[in-house]
């Protein structure tokens, strides 16, 4: 079996990008060639096909052949061995599924109960706050009404006192007038 590897080579100027320093790309290519095994055995196993040329570089397809005939054979994946399912195993799986269903149902019911309790707490708190607000408003209103009644009674008492003083002055003026008439 042979393997195919595709890659794309660029011109040396495209790889480095713009730079202020002069780099010798040929020296880099020579040093990379020194690392590769270029023996005749290795070269016999490699086939290179040129795919197409572009302005930015060339594309090649590299085909690697196996190095020995033993490597040529394929190792197919063995099919999954299916075990025969027994009644006990089926029953065990059904019981496990039933247990999962029951636990999920219990979690859902627990969550719903928590939500219901929370909504009850919220409504109870709102009711208590509303009652407290009503009581404080009622107390403030009663205090204002009491203060208004006290102020009104004080004003009425002050007016009555003024009227009594005026009546006394008028009575004195009448007495003085009668006394002057008699004289």
Automatic annotation (TrEMBL):
<feature type="coiled-coil region">
    <location>
        <begin position="80"/>
        <end position="114"/>
    </location>
</feature>
<dbReference type="Pfam" id="PF00836">
    <property type="entry name" value="Stathmin"/>
</dbReference>
<keyword id="KW-0206">Cytoskeleton</keyword>
<keyword id="KW-0175">Coiled coil</keyword>
<dbReference type="GO" id="GO:0005737">
    <property type="term" value="C:cytoplasm"/>
</dbReference>
<feature type="region of interest" description="Disordered">
    <location>
        <begin position="15"/>
        <end position="38"/>
    </location>
</feature>
<dbReference type="GO" id="GO:0015631">
    <property type="term" value="F:tubulin binding"/>
</dbReference>
<keyword id="KW-0963">Cytoplasm</keyword>
<comment type="similarity">
    <text>Belongs to the stathmin family.</text>
</comment>
<dbReference type="GO" id="GO:0007019">
    <property type="term" value="P:microtubule depolymerization"/>
</dbReference>
<feature type="coiled-coil region">
    <location>
        <begin position="142"/>
        <end position="183"/>
    </location>
</feature>
<dbReference type="GO" id="GO:0031110">
    <property type="term" value="P:regulation of microtubule polymerization or depolymerization"/>
</dbReference>
<protein>
    <recommendedName>
        <fullName>Stathmin</fullName>
    </recommendedName>
</protein>
<keyword id="KW-0597">Phosphoprotein</keyword>
<feature type="compositionally biased region" description="Basic and acidic residues">
    <location>
        <begin position="21"/>
        <end position="38"/>
    </location>
</feature>
<dbReference type="GO" id="GO:0043005">
    <property type="term" value="C:neuron projection"/>
</dbReference>
<dbReference type="InterPro" id="IPR036002">
    <property type="entry name" value="Stathmin_sf"/>
</dbReference>
<dbReference type="GO" id="GO:0031175">
    <property type="term" value="P:neuron projection development"/>
</dbReference>
<dbReference type="InterPro" id="IPR000956">
    <property type="entry name" value="Stathmin_fam"/>
</dbReference>
<dbReference type="GO" id="GO:0005874">
    <property type="term" value="C:microtubule"/>
</dbReference>
<keyword id="KW-0493">Microtubule</keyword>
């Amino acid at each position: 079996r042979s393997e195919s590897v595709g890659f794309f080579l660029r011109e040396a100027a495209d790889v480095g990008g713009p730079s202020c320093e002069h780099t010798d790309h040929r020296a880099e290519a020579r040093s990379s060639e020194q690392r590769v095994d270029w023996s005749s055995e290795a070269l016999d196993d490699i086939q290179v096909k040129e795919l197409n040329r572009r302005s930015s570089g060339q594309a090649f397809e590299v085909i690697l052949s196996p190095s020995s005939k033993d490597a040529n054979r394929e190792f197919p994946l063995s099919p999954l061995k299916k075990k025969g399912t027994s009644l006990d195993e089926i029953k065990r799986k059904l019981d496990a599924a039933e247990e999962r269903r029951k636990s999920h149902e219990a979690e859902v019911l627990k969550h719903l109960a928590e939500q219901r309790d929370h909504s009850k707490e919220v409504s109870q708190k709102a009711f208590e706050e509303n009652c407290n607000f009503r009581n404080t408003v009622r107390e403030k209103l009663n205090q204002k009404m009491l203060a208004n009644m006290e102020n009104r009674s004080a004003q009425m008492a002050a007016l009555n006192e003024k009227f009594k003083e005026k009546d006394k002055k008028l009575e004195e003026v009448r007495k003085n007038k009668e006394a002057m008439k008699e004289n």
